[in-house]
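ARCHIVE CARD
Drawer: 12
Card no.: 0347
Subject: one protein chain, sequence and derived structure
Cross-reference: see card 0346
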Amino acid sequence: MLPTTCEDLFPESTEAALTAEGLEPLGDTSGAEGYGASDPSLQAMIEANESVSCTWVLPGSERGLSTSVTIVSDADREAVAAALLAAGFAQTSAVGEYYSMESGGEFPHTETHALYEDFWVATLDGFGTSASLYTEDAMGTVNQLNF
């Protein structure tokens, strides 16, 4: 089961932290290119499966954060993991599989992905460094809803 709305994606404390940073919610941005993954092939997988993608932006800036929660099959989960490793993501394991990458350059961002059971949580934090926090919080919500 996925969160039914973006308001259900994170605990209240996380919502408060986003608001304190000045970020404003755009709601479910599925289909509007507001995905938790920067790679077009991963975005296509999010789009092709049952998912919810929530985006927050800092008005007047390029700062934005998107988290996608997607239900995936075993084959999709393996394809996501392979794509992340091929792209140079670092893999760690705690509960499930966890992948992270930080990108510098003209458009710096952090991106993290968590794969557990039938769920994939991905967060892209443009001009920010908190992707792992939001991925973990969203996976916590998924676990509360399903396990």
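Annotation on reverse: The beta strands are 24-28, 51-57, 64-71, 90-94, 96-103, 109-116, 119-126. The chain has one domain: 6-146.
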